[in-house]
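Notebook entry, structure prediction.
Reason for the run: the old model in the group folder had no record of what sequence produced it. Starting over properly, with the input documented here first.
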Amino acid sequence: HLFELPRGKPEDQGNVCYECGAELGTKPRFCEYTARYFCHKCFPPGKKFCIPAKVVAHWDFEPYPINPRSYDYLSSVMA
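New structure, fully documented this time:
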């Protein structure tokens, strides 16, 4: 993604995890790359990466929390 996706609310995706479809609960995790909410099972803490759209639009190289699948994808295309 070379453009920033709008940040919605958990209600916008039906209060369910984007990956597994489980109920999000009270503190869903937000992926800055996909702009989607995930449950704690599908989005464990610790994975952070620079978001390409933020680099292009704002020269922001700060690592942001992302889900493991997005992390694996961005790691694979980084080179």
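Summary: The first strand starts at residue 29 and ends at 31.
The old model has been moved to the deprecated folder.
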